[in-house]
Amino acid sequence: MTCFVIGEGTLLIGCTTILCQQGFQVKGVISQDQQVRSYCDKEGFRYVDSSSDLKSVLEENPFDFLFSITNGYILPEAILRLPRQHTINYHDGPLPAYAGVHATFWALINGETTHGITWHLVDAGIDTGAIIKQRVFPIEVSETSISLNAKSYTAAIDSFREVVDDLLTDNLKTHPQNLTGRSYYARNKRPDLFINWAQSAADIDRLQRALDFGFHPNPFGCLKLWLNNTFFQVRKAVATTTKSQTPAGTVVSILPNNLLVSTKDNLLAIGEFQSLSGEAISIESLCEQTGLREGQLLAQPDSEIIEDCRDAGKECARHQQYWINKLVGFQPTGFPWPASHEINKDRKPGCTYIDISVPDFVKALLEEQNSPGTRADYLLVAALVMLARLTDRLAVHVGFQSTTTRRIATDTHGLFAEYVPFAVEFDWEAGLEEAVAVVRQEQVEVEKRLTFAQDLLISQPALHSVAHELSERGIPIIICCDQSADECIVPEKSIAIILTDEAKYQVAFNPSIWPAHWVSEFVNRWMLLLENMVFQPKQPLKTIPLLTQTERQRILVDWNNTAVAYPATSPFISS
Hints:
Blueprint: E1 2-7, H1 9-21, E2 25-31, H2 34-43, E3 47-49, H3 54-59, E4 65-69, H4 77-80, E5 86-91, E6 99-100, H5 103-109, E7 114-121, E8 131-138, H6 145-168, E9 184-185, H7 201-210, E10 223-227, E11 230-243, E12 251-254, E13 258-262, E14 266-274, E15 280-281, H8 283-290, H9 303-317, H10 320-328, E16 352-355, H11 360-368, H12 375-391, E17 395-401, H13 403-411, E18 420-425, H14 432-448, H15 456-459, H16 464-473, E19 477-481, E20 495-499, E21 505-509, H17 516-535, H18 549-557
């Protein structure tokens, strides 16, 4: 028998190994998982990137079965028609209940006492096909998502051996799902992650355990505490058996490692606090920052804030993988001079602004450019080209703030990122028009993808190194578009290039970190490069002069004019 396998993860690898052991001919493994690719390379399987034209690949290689294992993509009917026999899918829930995604998480949230996994035929619906095999197992009182996923993995492997045996003996038996018992969880369904003191201690404890995915990616984020109009992350929440004697939300005791807070029934112990950027906060520091005290009644976020957070979560959920991929490769471009991360106390803190004055003749040349770009587009291109040239990098990576990212970040009190990665790789042989098109394309794409939850950097293991780097250095350069300077809140470690459609351009920076004369020099070079770009728009980006004529004369001619007349009467060799 022949087959293709599509999906990702260790379960796919384990099941593919079983297929080979039982005599199946695996014609290819379809995935985008690097771990799966390494497995294929080692075992000699054909690896097919799932972003390729799958229909053509499968049509060219007739096969009997398609096994869909931890596959996050809905297979179109054109693909489902290709196997000579069946497409068989693994689902991590006891169908017809918990169709959709993240079944183990939602089972924990809902307080289920049992869970299960299902192997089923794939039809035109989502997780609606006839059931082949199912396993059901108990959920323990202390269960977490990582432990329940481990149970599911074991049950999936054991039952898959039976599925393969049935296929080989032509003894496959199925039964239709009773869809009256169906429940469905969509990818954009998000839990409320803020602690609700009106809930029971056991409910909050269960939410925290459901958010524990161990070393695997967490698709939802971290539990949040609303305190002093600020969100803090909570990595520990344990229900106690002590009955609450005070109103829900009352801080009963402040201990060295946790707080004891009343819920609607029992006390809840919470601890291991973090800022939204993932920085650890001790109980002592938390109390100093917020004025927290014993006997204080912790409030809930306003209903409007909760709704804004829910809306943002649903809007941004569909773009989460895009931002994970973007952040993995994000290497913020800096300036060719170091920032002082030790704040200079002799200089006044706060923001300094330098107004950008575009010469009239440059404005006139820009108006003549036969391009859909705005004046701000040209300024942005010149700034990015300048940064790449100064740092000798082929690509430039900066932070980007739009009206949308600022709105979402403000509405959610910082739960979502205000600055998102913006990366451009120029064709250095091309001219100005091509550069504008590349930058515009990136801007359109980034703005379409909205933003991401701040705790994405913490909840995704692949981003931990990026989170550390951003915590240490920040994003040195950010671009603020479509807003005025007084609306642009500049992070302390950043320099902001503010470009608006109202022809008001500025650079904002903290002079206690970034010396003003360095920033001024950058602005002067930026304007010089802009002038040279628009004066000769067809010249390759790599050859645009960064020096004035006077500087070129001094460096290339004057400093090399070292000839000295040799005395005619002096011998070549003196004794």
